[in-house]
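EI: anyone free to look at a 595-residue chain?
SC: sure, send it
EI:
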Amino acid sequence: MTSVLERLGFDPGKLAFAGRTAIAACLALLLAWALGLHHPQWAAMSVWAASQPLRGQLLEKSLFRILGTLAGAAVGILLVQAYRVEPLLMVAGLALWVALCTATTNLLRGFVAYGAVLAGYSAAMVSLIDIGQPDHVLAIGADRVATVLTGVVVATLVGLLLAGRINPAAGLRADIRTLVADILTQLGVPGGASGTPRAALLERIAAIEEGLDPHAAGSLRSRQQVRSLRAVLISAVALLMQTGRPPASPNLSAAARALRNGQLDTAISHLDAVNLADPDQAAALSDLRDALARLETTEAAPTTRPEPPVVLHRDWLGAREAGLRALTALLLVGVFWQVSGWSSGNLMLLGLSVMISLFSTFESPVRMMRWVGIGQTTGVLGMLACRWLLWPHAGAEVQLILMMMPFVLLGAFVMAHHRTVPIAFDYNMVFLLTLQPHFPLTGSFGQSVMAGVGVVMAPMFAWVMYRFMFHARPERRAETLVRMTRQDLAAFAADPRALDNGRVWQARLYHRVLRLIRTSLRTGQGSEAAIRHGLDALRVWNAVRQLHAVLADPALPARERDTFTQALKRIERIEADPAPALDSVTQLSPRLQAR
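SC: here you go
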């Protein structure tokens, strides 16, 4: 059976997951209707949104879906009250709220970010659906929360019964030990005669680091495991980014062999025996050794070794741009809706609140909007087929619910086929969003079409905003990383207490280099330019650290103090004009090293 499915283009593993999710969505739809909830289809939408293949991910995503929905529903109720005073006030309030949530999403990671973005468009769902019933806003908000809870509970129960129990962190630890062994082998070769090139090793580190966050879900222990894994990777970057090679050491090669054999304690013992004259290399190797020791730490076998600092890149510039983009887009569409009186304007505004926030964290939202538009169009076509081909034959409301289920089950096959997987999620969500299973049936075919048009226009307008306002693309994200690195160096140069937090600055620099490598690879430019930028940034960082240390000496001659102070001033302007700062570092390096 598996081979037949594969020949037809289906992924058996994905089909199993999507199939149980579709069945859970049907159960949630029926249960929400039986409970008398006004929008039972939202429960099925919550199942599609909350389901995850692993238990830890399922539990954490469900938690943040509930929290995000509660926050969004509360804001949505306030927005409906504003609508009763002045519709444009509601539009402005919604735009500000979604913009704030969008900016916050770009600063957070994992399912916490998902909860933030959900809080934004949940407010839109409460305030924009049933817009003509402001007197029932509390009931609408309560219905929204109840349907989401119904969907989350069903998804969680089905997931706990069927979701995988595997602990992917164990496999990650093995991969990282092998990676560190390759790094130590490369460092232990005399003169770099052989071994894996530094660029290839850094690319492997960046790829592993990017995939760590999902494995932190589900428990505090998982989160600590991922933090320890990331500490190893950051320490490995610090060792690889040193410009000089350490002298060949048999202990480095012996530690590499021990790591490949799974003998972590032996590897650490060999690393303890390595003596490096260069203080920066010695510090980097010490951090790597301490981070490896903490990998296997348990309550029964604690370690006294400190954890190297792990400071993650936060995209403050990207968050600001994403928030401004969301604010502008929602204000434009919201004002147009109110001025024109377009009956489906609320649905376009609702769809746009999702498109302009959820996809702002993607590497290339412009490319994604194409697939989103196709998926939503397919969902609208499914809605029209169900509403106008099947529902007219129903004699009771329960029959409307049952007639929706074949389309929901079809969504599993759409999600599991390699050609249709990019459109599957949007098909499932839009099909459910645009149907209202209430008996007797109301409305006309034209009204259904216009509602579908309003939904489909949202990704089209979002494409325009992503394309022409702060063009969201990998190249721009790479430019932002470079810019933020220079801002950090300038701030480090200007901070008189910089030496107190030097390791924090340095750890964040290494993490930005990893992000820049991954982003550069997506642009097709390779990692060489990113590594060169990282090496230049590290060279400037080391120079600033040395300048601060030298200037702290009260016996420093006035002439030299003036020279070094001017060098710091040039580095403070590195964002606007990097060339003089780099030239200054090059000229002063021999004098700083001599001191």
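EI: Residues 14 and 206 are 27 Å apart (CA to CA).
SC: 👍
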